[in-house]
Request: fold
Amino acid sequence: MTRAGGGRGTHRCHPPTLALLTMGRGKGKKRAPYVRPQYGAGPGGVDPSACENAALLRYYREQRIVPPGEWAAFERSLRTSLPMALRVLQSRPGWRSTVAELQRRGEVSPLGWCPGAEPLAWQCASEAYRGELRRWCQQQNSVGTVSFQEAVSMLPALLLDPSPAHLILDMCAAPGSKTTQLLDTITAQDDWGAEPTLATGLLVAADLSSLKVTSVVAGRLRKIHSPILALAVANSKNFPFVSHFGQGQDSTLLFDRILCDVPCSGDATIRKNPSIWRSWRLGYSLELHATQLKLLRRGLRLLKAGGRLVYSTCSLDPLENEAVVLAALRSYPGRVSLEEAPALGGASTLATSPGLSTWRVPDVRQAGPVPKSPKVRTGDWLCPACGANCFGYRTSCFKCKAKRPEPEPEPEPEP
Reply:
């Protein structure tokens, strides 16, 4: 989206609710990482054939989010694990040696549609991401040479096309993968030669949760040392209009680029989170629509004339995508335009499809009661001694320390 010029009325009169934070290191007891269940036959694996939700499939078939001839392939893809994907951080020293190491490994392949003279985005099948490759990738991530990020998650920052001179706002920054990509892109474009030309822009990463900003987002951004980053705890639905004094007159601080990656139902992440098959319910998108529209409208009001805003979600539902964009366009007739996504310039073309022009709005009164989730999630186990529900990755009970029982052997087939 781009914004045309126009009056701002009284938009500047808002209380200063912005809080800038430093990236401090939190202290506390280390916890074992939670391993999300994935499709497959391994420990804690989810059987794809057991994943079924008739209401979800019927709803999206009626919405026609894919052509009828592609529905069978689309449904099969929902039951396959998402590939592992990562980005090489070109703002870090020695990033070319990391690219060379990835090129040497046969299990990973570059994403051809990602622009750049060197392949920075890589992926491999989830079945191949194990053993020595997994250990190496995790080591590189810990030292900050790569950043784990889903392939589709890289698109919003690429379409935003930031430069070191831009004022950029990330309205919903957590968990921080897109913010890291933006900061890496800006820092890598700067000239750090014999006479460095420091970036004159600013990247503001905002989120409503102070915990996410100070721990999750700050933890990711520690990989890149840059003076043009500011973290903010703010409700972006009411992000303040900041006045600044420049060239002898008062003016409002507006942004050249805005990323509006809004909270959503997240049902497009079903390939990495099979529990959505069980938890999805009709009408959740309707509850989020108003919040998403408020965020998008606020972003458009914070955008400079001629600036660019990218709106994105992790949802398949047109009520969270096309419907929100249409409502925002109707709010600012003649002042905001919907632009065609530019070509990324990679070696291969990214397959895309046009947005929907019509969609169905469900009657949630006919949806019936929301089914309760079972007490034990897929991959978890019940302690036989005290009955506690334990995560699938634990080998002993967190409560009474009893050992995890061995799985019962499968019965031998009858002759």
Q: What stands out?
A: The CA atoms of residues 84 and 129 lie 7 Å apart. The first strand starts at residue 2 and ends at 3.
